[in-house]
């Protein structure tokens, strides 16, 4: 338990061991946390729970802080099981307690738990008076699920932001000024790039809506990771930038390779880029050995990418295909791309990659790809170098 203010306590769970999230989809190399908050005023409010494996521990620890039967309201900001699983255990003890959530939250919670709890659907602007303070609800649909909800505690100036503004970051120091800032911002960007980026237009709209409320925000308390207490405006500013076709002066080259031919192409293409754009950051990733979630983060921060694979069974290698399929779902904005690949008897890979990049919304040059037969000879490597130069000029 961590006392945030006189009224508000952190009652969540830090998961130091977590390394994968959303099944096996997302890497969480610094662990994570499942943030739950307890407000104690004239009325007592529990905001969210924790993931199922920690439900018993959560209930036991909560009982040490407060008689669970004295909890008056539950606020379910998000129905995903990493937040709502333990609420089912709490509601076994207090089954008639009102559960405040969005209308979509009712559907999702029923879908997961198959219980007809005492739901109280809320909309943006609805308030819950709890004594000397009140919670104002703000719907946040598609950040990142339809049921998403935020809640603002007026007395303590805390915005409970659900999954928005979070990070998968385990730390015993639960505030932004108590952790390494570069690690924190990277994890916040990784969270945005892999989870929130498909809904960037919604992010912009929601930030504008929050600004119109003129809420004095002293603390942003997300559902994962540290709370933004020292400088809550920082993450608001970051989200505003990230949602607006974000890119840095970076070109990322992602490839898979069987016997080194496509790797060599990647390296020489990168040399060509450097010739034309020496100020750009150039990063190369071997997609079958690199962390895919980190690759997605680097693609997100790039102005342009190149993707390569050898032809394999008339297609492309599976690590390349999986990465491209994920990019299609994320729908990154205003980025440029091209394809490359080696082949033996069927030059299919670059064509397949080109098509997938186009389907993902990337802008491609007129000469959208380059191929090399077998192990690239000196002439093929010169062509790769020139291709890199042309792509760098296109990407500027």
Brief descriptors of the model:
elongated, 396 residues, 7-stranded mixed sheet, single chain, 5-stranded mixed sheet
Topology summary:
Elements: E1 2-3, E2 8-10, E3 13-15, E4 20-21, E5 26-27, E6 32-34, E7 37-40, E8 44-47, H1 55-65, E9 73-75, H2 81-93, E10 99-101, H3 103-113, E11 119-121, E12 127-129, E13 134-139, E14 149-153, E15 158-162, H4 181-196, H5 200-213, E16 219-222, H6 232-242, E17 250-255, H7 261-276, E18 281-286, H8 292-301, E19 304-308, E20 311-312, E21 315-316, H9 318-330, E22 336-343, H10 349-359, E23 369-373, H11 378-395
Helix pairs in contact: 1-2, 4-6, 4-8, 5-6, 7-11, 9-10
Overview of the molecule:
By secondary structure, the chain is an alpha/beta fold. It contains eleven helices and 23 strands. The protein has helices spanning 55-65, 81-93, 103-113, 181-196, 200-213, 232-242, 261-276, 292-301, 318-330, 349-359, 378-395; strands at 2-3, 8-10, 13-15, 20-21, 26-27, 32-34, 37-40, 44-47, 73-75, 99-101, 119-121, 127-129, 134-139, 149-153, 158-162, 219-222, 250-255, 281-286, 304-308, 311-312, 315-316, 336-343, 369-373. A hairpin with a 4-residue loop joins β4 and β5. α9 packs parallel to α10 (349-359). It is elongated, with a radius of gyration of 24 Å. The model has no long low-confidence stretch (mean pLDDT 97).
